[in-house]
Amino acid sequence: IEVVTEATPFYGESGGQVGDTGRIYADDGGAVFEMSVEDTIKDPTGLIIHKGKLVSGSLNQNQGVVLQVDNQKRAATALNHTATHILHYALRQILGEHVKQAGSSVGPDRFRFDFTHFSKVEQTELNAIETLVNDKIRDNVAVQKDEMDAEEALKSGATALFEEKYGDRVRVISLADFSRELCGGTHTNQTGDLGLFKIISESSVASGVRRIEAVTGRTAVDVVQQTAGLLNESALMLRDKTQALPQRIQNHLRQQRESD
Q1: What is the C-alpha separation between 34 and 14, in angstroms, rounded?
Q2: pLDDT digits over 159-199, tens only?
Q3: Cβ-based neighbours of 97, under 8 Å, separated by 6 or more
Q4: 189, 75 Cβ separation under 8 angstroms
Q5: Model pTM?
Q6: What is the dihedral angle through the alpha carbons of 179, 184, 186, 191, rounded to the nearest 10 degrees?
Q7: H or E stretch covering 76
Q8: What are the residues facing 111 on neighbouring strands?
Q9: Is residue 58 a contact partner of residue 74, using CB atoms and an 8 Å limit?
Q10: CA quadruple 148, 154, 160, 164: dihedral positive or negative?
Q11: What kind and span of H or E run contains 248?
Q12: What kind and span of H or E run contains 101?
């Protein structure tokens, strides 16, 4: 079912950020109703539509309901959205001022960030980008959120996405003196809330457009631990230290070529 309410705390998918999930239930004179909200979208007119499945009961027009956002997923998504702003800054610092955002997709588990660049990002550059983002996280600067006239925001130096449509009033997200962007998405309060930033992959999307996928917070810790676990398991199988794995693999490949 799809439900529209007079007011809602749910974020409707827009600007690359996924819509909120959660539940809606009745609290109106004993009426029984509950739905699981699996997605929230914003239609072209700005109407917020809750999409999901009926769990129990039925819903009538003008019935009173309670809307409950999944705060854990909301918070994780907010961490990733703030990370895209820091990553955008880091890319321009490491790769050059020619880098511009070319799209993004922000969810609770991970995010992807598309940007203009003329070649593959080398591992040394990825390491430098990852280090700079984590430096800014540890600086624990406040994530400032201001609403202002669009013209005033652009004059103040705020970055806007070319393909996005903005109204007369806009929201500006500022991170100290290194990032200032127009953005209507959800964000955390301090960069330190992100905890840890980890790049998962870098790839080509189209000619002149690259994509970075990354994770933050608890998910980033899980990724690091899983990777370390695989390395340790491989080292145990070879009865050697993890640092020796590359050389052991090289030796094995050389012996294989010689035997062929």
Answers
A1: 26
A2: 877 556 677 789 999 999 999 999 999 999 999 999 999 99
A3: none
A4: no
A5: 0.90
A6: 10
A7: helix 71-94
A8: 106, 214
A9: no
A10: positive
A11: helix 245-259
A12: strand 101-106
Closest CA to 171 of 120, 180, 25: 180
Q: Which residues pair with 8 in a beta bridge?
A: none
pLDDT in tens, 51-68: 999 999 999 898 899 999
| Closest among 56, 65, 52, 58 to 6, alpha carbons compared | 65
Dist. CA 136–CA 193, nearest whole Å: 11
- Centroid of chain to Cα 95: 21
- Determine the 3-state secondary structure of 137 from DSSP: helix
Tokens of 132: 């700079």
3-state secondary structure of 87: helix
DSSP 159: B
- Report the C-alpha dihedral over residues 107, 207, 100, 14, rounded to 10 degrees: -30
